[in-house]
Amino acid sequence: SPSNLIPKIFRNLGFASLAVLVSKITQLLLFVLIARWLGAEGLGQYTYALSVVLLVGVLSDLGITQYLVSQVAATGEKTEWYLNHTFTLRLGLSISGLVLVFLLGLFLNFSRESRILLYLLGVGQFLVNVTLGWRWIFQAEQKLQYETLLIFIFGLVYSLGGLAFLAWQKKIIWIGLSYSF
In which element (H, E) is residue 102 found? Predict the structure, then answer.
């Protein structure tokens, strides 16, 4: 009903805003400490590898999520059918992206440590891409508090894990391992 719509929108907006805010603040802290502990070169290695991985990660979706959310939200039907039929497509695209990251690691001028970082970030992005296939269900059914919880957990595990690993070893490879978790 229209009277329940406004509170639901504000509740979902509040959940999402809080999760993104906490996630981004912890990631900012991670970037600052990478720059401080590893210097400009370490931060450059990290951002370059992350940029390559995120650019290739675009291949795993190609608009599938937006299409699914609009179809299921409009009709409220066939959620299971869409999940079953698009998971294989998303998995295939994600595997292609992972193979591309590994090939780029061989052909780009990376140091050994940067190449390992690229591979770890690639594996982490592959896992993120595959699991994003289920997040659209929360979006389509307008249960954004669950999607928000996933964003919050991912941001904290990545950032706090990266900070813990970085404080322990002060090597860039450990940030890639945190991203894989």
Answer: helix 79-107
